[in-house]
Amino acid sequence: MTKWLFLVVSGLWLISAQGQKGDVLGQVREDFQRIKGKEDIEQLNKIAVDDSDAVANTIRAYQGAATCMMAEYVFSPIKKLQYFNDGKKSLERSIKNDKSVETIYCRLLIQLNVPGFLNYHDEIKGDIDFFKAELPKAKIDAAYKEIMIKNLVTLSKKEDIKQSLLNIDLEGND
């Protein structure tokens, strides 16, 4: 009886732990979308990332983008540049490790929002092409896909980019 109870409890714990592991990315996505200030970014960047977790790279991409965003909330130009460069380095490392819809989404958010003098715009066209091609088949909730598109459209200053993003067929039909 004790052995059976142990197996049931262990099995439930394992199922719960797996569910929580998957929820970390969901929580990061939610927290990222709700960033309103420095404290929100600091909280997001405190989330521990387990390297053995399949979503670790994606979480690091969100944290890198959030670090870039921290530049908005500091006064010193030196600190602004430091946050931007640290976040960009982390984001680029994530993309190099695993180029995915979400890592590219994070880079696009930053590229479409940074001032021109930072010279972080070279990948926009390629990133949009990748994003458009891969988003329909990505294993991401449809509602979150729509949020991603809406955010990119909102940040884009060019009408052709906006239209291109708005014309993404999330069903993957031609």
By helix and strand content, what is the structural category?
mainly alpha
Mean pLDDT: 87
- Number of beta-strand segments: 0
Major sheet description: none
What is the count of helical runs?
A: 8
- Roughly what fraction of the amino acids lie in strands? under 5%
Outline the low-pLDDT stretches: 1-20
Shape: globular
Overall helicity: 55-70%
Q: Give the SSE string.
A: HHHHHHHH
Rg on CA atoms, Å: 18 Å
N- and C-termini, Cα separation: 58 Å
Describe the structure.
The protein is built from 8 helices and no strands. It has 174 residues and is mostly helical.
Q: How would you concisely characterize the structure shown here?
A:
With 174 residues, the protein is an all-alpha fold. Helices cover 68% and strands 0% of the residues.
Please describe the topology of this protein.
Layout (H helix, E strand, L loop, with lengths): L1 H32 L4 H8 L10 H14 L7 H21 L3 H11 L12 H11 L7 H14 L3 H8 L8
Helix pairs in contact: 1-3, 2-3, 3-4, 3-5, 4-5, 5-6, 7-8
Q: How would you describe this structure in keywords?
A:
174 residues; mainly alpha
